[in-house]
Amino acid sequence: MKKIIERKIFYQCSVCKTKYANKKEALKCELRTLEKKVFEIGNYVKNIEPRFCQMRQKYYFFSGKITKITDPELPDVEYETRWLMNKKERLNAHVFLYQVKFRCPHCKKTREERYYAPELQFNEKSQR
Ligand SMILES: [Zn+2]
Ligand SMILES: [Zn+2]
């Protein structure tokens, strides 16, 4: 048996770090616009679509805080068109994922989950 090591060249988008085998594709990716940050770390937010608590089998809205914002990524086009009914401009852009820390009001468990900006809104009552 012969061991073969193949070298492959990839082109990486400098914005989202996605690797492409094709230079043109990588260039096209770099030309995508970057979503303007909607939230900042420390902002208080709530979810628009209710979450489901597996423990208590109940839906809920949380009041949470942004703890982290990811580096720019490519949007999950299928998810965004199905659930967020997004505008085309956003689907062709690099977007951020906002990590939110919140407590489930049913089971009282603290969670940290990642959301796209259109899934969240400011929680005015908690803003200081
Ligand atoms: Zn990119
Ligand atoms: Zn829960």
Can I get a quick summary?
Helix content is 16%, strand content 30%. The chain has 128 residues and is α+β, with helices and mostly antiparallel strands. It has a five-stranded antiparallel beta sheet, with no helix packed on it.
Commentary on this structure:
The protein has 128 residues and is α+β, with helices and mostly antiparallel strands. The protein has one domain (32-126). It has helices spanning 23-30, 77-84, 88-91; strands spanning 11-12, 19-20, 44-47, 51-53, 58-60, 63-69, 97-103, 110-116, 120-122. It has a five-stranded antiparallel β-sheet with strand order 8-7-6-3-9, with no helix packed on it. Strands 1-2 form a two-stranded antiparallel ribbon. Strands 4-5 form a two-stranded antiparallel sheet. Strand 7 (97-103) and strand 8 (110-116) form a beta hairpin. The longest helix is centred in the N-terminal third of the chain and has 8 residues, at 23-30. It is elongated and about 55 Å long. The mean pLDDT is 93. It binds zinc ion (ZN) (2 copies).
- Determine the structural class based on helices, strands and strand pairing: alpha+beta
The general outline is elongated
Secondary-structure element order, N to C: EEHEEEEHHEEE
Tally of DSSP helical segments: 3
